[in-house]
Amino acid sequence: MTLGQIEIDATKFGTDPEPDDLPVLPTRNLVLFPGVTIPISITRDSSLLVAREASERRIPVGIVCQTNPDDDDPGITKGLYKYGVVADVFKVFELPDGSHTAIIRARNRFRILGKGAGAVIPAARLSVRFKILDDIEPAEDPNYDVTVEQIGRLATEIMEKTAGIGKEVSGNLAQLKSPTDRVNYIATNAGVDAAEKISLLAESNLAKRASKLLALLLDNMRRVELTHEIMERAGERMKDNQRSAFLQMQLETIKDELYGPGGDSGDEADELMMRADKLRMPLYVRDTFDKEIGKLRRLNPQTPDYSVQYSYLETLLDLPWDKKSKTNNDINAARDVLEHDHYGLDKVKQRILEQIAVIMHSPRAKAPILCLVGPPGVGKTSLGKSIARSMGREYQRVSLGGMHDESEIRGHRRTYIGAMPGRIIKAMKAAGTTNPVLLLDEIDKVGKDYKGDPAAALLEVLDPEQNKTFHDNYIDIDYDLSNVLFIATANTLSTVERPLLDRMEVIDLSGYLIEEKIEIARRHLLPRILKDNDLAEDSGFNITDDALTALIERYTAESGVRQLEKQLASLVRKSILARLSGTEFPSTITPDDLQPLLGLPPFTKDRYEGNEFPGVVTGLAWTQVGGEILLAEASLSPGKGDRLTVTGNLGDVMKESATIASQWVKAHSAELGIAPELFETRNLHIHFPEGAIPKDGPSAGITIATAIASAFTGRLVRQRIAMTGEITLRGRVLPVGGVKEKILAAKRAGITDIVLSEDNRRDIEDIPEAYRDGLDFHYVRTVKEVLDFSLV
After folding, report:
1. pLDDT band at 2 (very low <50, low <70, confident <90, very high)
2. Which residues pair with 687 in a beta bridge?
């Protein structure tokens, strides 16, 4: 045979190797397949000695690939793969550069069994025991021929795209008539990992070997095409950048010719510089501004990056850096503003005035963050606006309800398309001063998801020790928020993160009495509604105090005045309609006029049922919209006494309270005069009406216990009584929260007596007398005391 210009007589080779002693030539990355003749480079001295002796003596050697190509001294057990080929070394010759190359032809595959004797070629450092592996030729199978054709096509395309030698590869494949020889030739020369080639070499079934090779080539082809596509895009982008740079240079040259060095004084960059010169920015901000405007000058105005950079610089200029509002220093004027804007809330206004006084006395003192907590409609948001007006400061409201993205607080980084500052920086920009009043509305409704936790970002905003260097990701420099008066609002504290709550001072706004609501309607609601509808206060719309009372009691059920305002607005609209249509409308609205105008009242004042049937008790509950009365019903039915049914859409805590109450009544049946056999012949059912409304909490404990005791004893519950308190298995009555809201609910329902824990006495004493008027409070320590007073 002929390899290039080297004449080789292959007939002189072909002796069988010794099965226990096969000298090995290790290769670094070459995996040779049977039937392939190939030149290999000999770099190790030991391998050169083996190759020369094998060529001279016509001794076959093993060609095995190393597991680690960087290993200069591989071993048999760990340094070599387990599969190789028996090969003949046709010739070894020296190249002009002093390196050596051997012409090798592979014969059979083999698997290494262990270390060989090393006697065939004593100079061989590696010798192995081995087992010859025979290839399984496929029967006449058209699928095999098609697979081989696809392998040849893919190999040619890959070599053409990677090395530009597709025609040469195609010519070499044409000389190979056997499909098996083509598969082995391509497998040897394919640009795939050595470990994957070893898996091909280990496969005896030639059809499977061909299929695996085709899969590897397809994957390789995808990588080649992807690389080619990336390189083309990179080349096009480089051309575009070079073109833009060239045009930019020409543009700068034209500007220099027209306007002299530095360009037109009226361009956008210079306008920004002139605006910056008029501001008193901190030095670190001015340094950042000068650096960023230098970037703007180097950008082409037609590129998207230019508009992003320009918007950023405008944001820096629009932010207040050293501008403050001239604050009011007259505490009496501040008091007058609060009194004018809000009726009632004396305790709340007193606390706010204390804070305003501290700020007036010591402007540099760190102001605490106030958190106004109360049900909807009690005036939390409007109170924040009044605080700003009383202090003479700018006011901005930041709505946090439903927020779940941390970037809404900290802003987006400018690397993102459509990046913008966070809501805090936006509010400061809108306020235009460094000392506004920022109202963080609905702070209890902040959520969190995979985009981050806004409540965690608010920690920096609301911490006086940290907000001096608040960092917004968009402006990317520290901003001083220490002069801002933050006021937060919430309906409940249960959903506010504890670290966030620790940074705020809570002020409770519970609700209004009926008398206060009437005064609020006269002073604020009606004038505002008439003004919104372009009606003068003397336009003829009149309503009596009795009608307002009936409107509050029968058409609203709230702690605030939001629903009241809606009902008044409805009456005003009906008066306008009557005036325009020429129909009659009462000159002064009385209680009797409400039903014809507003329909049937949705609420009734007296909703308790505690004096008609045994087992029915009125409890008191707290909700996010204020206090509510809560009916508990207990009934007995024939049975084995082993069932306790609790219904009414109750939570786990409330169900546990029912279990505790039932067990306590059973344990004290003798004291209550209950026959023991009743517990064995009656099943107990406890129900809370209005099942569509979820209910939970421990405060219904004494209510449930009273209902159960009333049902078993047949004794009625005292009239116009309501109760609230948690119980224990020992019969102790524990204090509960939301007392003020519950008292207001009791007054709305016509309750006269309230039973609650002795430990709640201090809460009652802290409530103004106007809220307690008309109510008698009965403090208890045990369930027995509750039953002694409640059951008649």
Report:
1. very low
2. 633, 647
For residue 371, give the amino acid letter.
C
What average pLDDT score do residues 504-511 get?
Answer: 84
DSSP 90-106: EEEEE-TTS-EEEEEEE
Cα separation of 792 and 739, whole Å? 26
The predicted structure's pLDDT at residue 609? 55
The catalytic residue among 55, 127, 390, 699 is 699
Instruction: Return d(Cα 63, Cα 102) in angstroms, integer.
Output: 12
- Helix 783-790 and helix 701-713, axial crossing angle in degrees, nearest 10: 60
Exposure string (b/e) for 603-629, b if CB count within 10 Å is 16 or more?
A: eeeeebebeeebbbbbbbbbbebbbbb
572: pLDDT strictly greater than 60: yes
Rounded-to-integer distance, Cα 404 and Cα 223, Å: 40
Three-state SS for 663-675 is HHHHHCHHHHCCC
Q: Which of 741, 492, 722 is closest to 627 using CA atoms?
A: 741
Instruction: Determine how many CB atoms are found less than 10 A away from the CB of residue 81.
Output: 20
Residue 529 has a pLDDT of: 92
Q: How far is Cα 643 from Cα 309, in angstroms, rounded to an integer?
A: 72
144 Cβ partners below 8 Å, 6+ apart?
138, 179, 206, 207, 210
Give the β-pairing of 721-723 and 369-373: unpaired
Tell me if 86 sits within 8 A of 132, measured CB to CB.
Answer: yes
Average pLDDT across the chain, whole number: 85
What is the C-alpha separation between 241 and 671, in angstroms, rounded?
94
Coil, strand or helix at 42: strand
Are residues 110 and 23 in contact, defined by beta-carbon separation less than 8 angstroms? no
Contacts of 228 (CB under 8 A, 6+ apart): 161
Q: What angle is formed at CA 691 by the lines to CA 689 and CA 696, rounded to 5 degrees?
A: 90
* 83 three-class SS: strand
What is the predicted pLDDT for the residue at 154?
86
What CA–CA distances, in Å, run from 604 to 213, 321, 552? 84, 57, 10
pTM of the model: 0.57
Q: Is 742 a catalytic residue?
A: yes
Which of the following is catalytic: 349, 426, 740, 742? 742
Listed residue (526, 514, 520, 489) closest to 504, CA to CA: 489
pLDDT score for 428? 92
Taking every pair of Cα atoms in the chain, the longest distance, rounded to a whole number of angstroms, is: 130
747 catalytic? Reply is: no
Distance (Å, whole) CA 117 – CA 103: 26
Q: How many helices (H) and strands (E) does the chain have?
A: 29, 24
How far are the Cα atoms of 241, 267, 592, 680, 756 from residue 168, in angstroms, in the given order? 38, 61, 106, 99, 99
Distance CA 617, CA 611 (A): 8
CA distance 469 to 454: 18
Residues counted in the chain? 792
The answer to whether 135 touches 84, Cβ cutoff 8 Å, is: no
- Four-CA torsion 385, 388, 392, 394, nearest 10 degrees: -90
Residue 451 one-letter amino acid: K
Which residue's structure tokens are 């090779």? 213
Phi, psi of 473 (to 5 degrees): -65, -25
pLDDT-based confidence at 23, cuts 50/70/90? very high
Half-sphere exposure of 450 (CA within 13 A, CB side): 0
Beta strands at 61-66 and 22-27: parallel, antiparallel or unpaired: parallel
Whose structure tokens read 């609790």?
646
Lowest mean pLDDT among 54-68, 164-178, 214-228, 460-474: 164-178
- Cβ contacts of residue 612 below 8 Å, gap of 6+? 716
Which residue type does 417 have? I
